[in-house]
Amino acid sequence: MRVVIAGGGIGGMTAALALLQRGFEVELYEQAQEIKEVGAGIQISPNGNRVLDALGVFDRLRTLSCDPERKELRLWNSGEPWPLFDLGPLAVERYGYPYLTVYRPDLLDTLRQAVIAQDPGAIRLRSRVVGVAQEPGSASITLEDGTVVTGDVVIGADGWRSVVRDTLWGPSAPEFSGMVAWRGLIPMADLPEHLRSWVGTTWIGPRAHAVHYPLHGGELMNFVATIEGKEWTAQGGNVHGTVEECLEDFAGWHENVQTLIKLSPQLMKWALVRGEPIPSWSQGRVTLLGDACHATLPFLAQGAVHSIEDGLVLARALDAYGSDPEKALLRYEHARIDRTSKMVRGATANTDRFHSPELAEPESAKAYLAREWSVDPIADRYDWLYSYDASTAEI
User: Fold this and answer.
1) Which of 60, 157, 311, 374 has the fewest C-beta atoms under 10 angstroms from its C-beta?
2) Is residue 213 flagged as an active site residue?
3) What are the φ and ψ backbone dihedral angles of 33, each rounded to 5 degrees?
4) What is the pLDDT of residues 211-238, one digit of tens each?
5) Is 134 helix (H, G, I), strand (E, B) or coil?
6) CA distance 310 to 301
7) What is the distance between the alpha carbons of residues 321 and 331, in angstroms, rounded to a whole number?
8) Please, what's the b/e burial string for 118-154 (b: 16 or more CB within 10 A of its CB; e: otherwise)?
9) Cα separation of 75 and 82, whole Å?
10) 187 CB contacts (<8 Å, ≥6 apart)?
11) Is the pLDDT of residue 84 over 80?
12) Active-site entry in 103, 213, 382, 386
């Protein structure tokens, strides 16, 4: 079976690797001149690392990444800590895999190398997809230069502005959420000693929050600060920002947050989008994957992981029902749609948890933390995520 993938991001690369390992012929079309991501950090929870291990790339990625000791919350102005959960040996004991903080280019390059090892010609660069069509027994994409590529199945892994999705289902791109994320990467050696710890820290406050964690074997500190009530007029999804504007957005926040802003060599502003999960992904021999069908706010730390899970489950479904590709795609959708919809809605719900007005004052903040971030609520929100196994989930 020949599978054509539109999009060379994390989800598309994961699907390509999982399919190649199962003997499928795969062609992946990516509009960029090289498989490359803007430098940024992502979090790969145990459910994602379980997939990466099944694909044979976990060990290499782990050597490039960081295993934080724990996750913690801190109050925006006082810095008072609130422990969340252990990310070290206890996470491995409970879920079988650690929680990694990963430099996004490291993950993408690890997947790219694994795909090339399976088939050096699978990745087709400088190939922008502008359309998709199908007829009985086949599906095809059209590239910007007019080339038509036909396969047995087409997978739209082309992000939240998906051409594949909008061609078949009509315009349905998520909308700007009113929130902007400031992103910076700081050389660890440039930070004061007390900010170099291998901890995943989330600072929460009224209408904003900030996150930082180590990357790239501890050489970098990832910094992301999200604030509500912003406008977005730029054409693209990200633009260069200034230290001065970021400091203004986080005026009054703890000096550690201010230090991270000031020491960021470059700050980028990203528009955060959100929307309700779409009710259908598959049409005939075409299906969607990752942000193309369930773009999410980054507040559950599953943005990359949900695409990684999709890629493996999709490959398993095509392997199991390959004699009937349309059935295979529907089985994949059925296996994934409820879980990913819950992920999207959970991330949206965490907006209020991270940005609650109750965090403005010390006494109401303590009561809020005890109510929303004690052991039982945390277990309800995260155990179902981390215990999932895309290798064995029913299809």
Assistant:
1) 374
2) yes
3) -80, -20
4) 999 999 999 999 999 999 999 988 888 9
5) strand
6) 16
7) 9
8) ebeebbbeebebeebebeeebbbbbbeeeeebebbbb
9) 8
10) 219, 220, 221, 265
11) no
12) 213
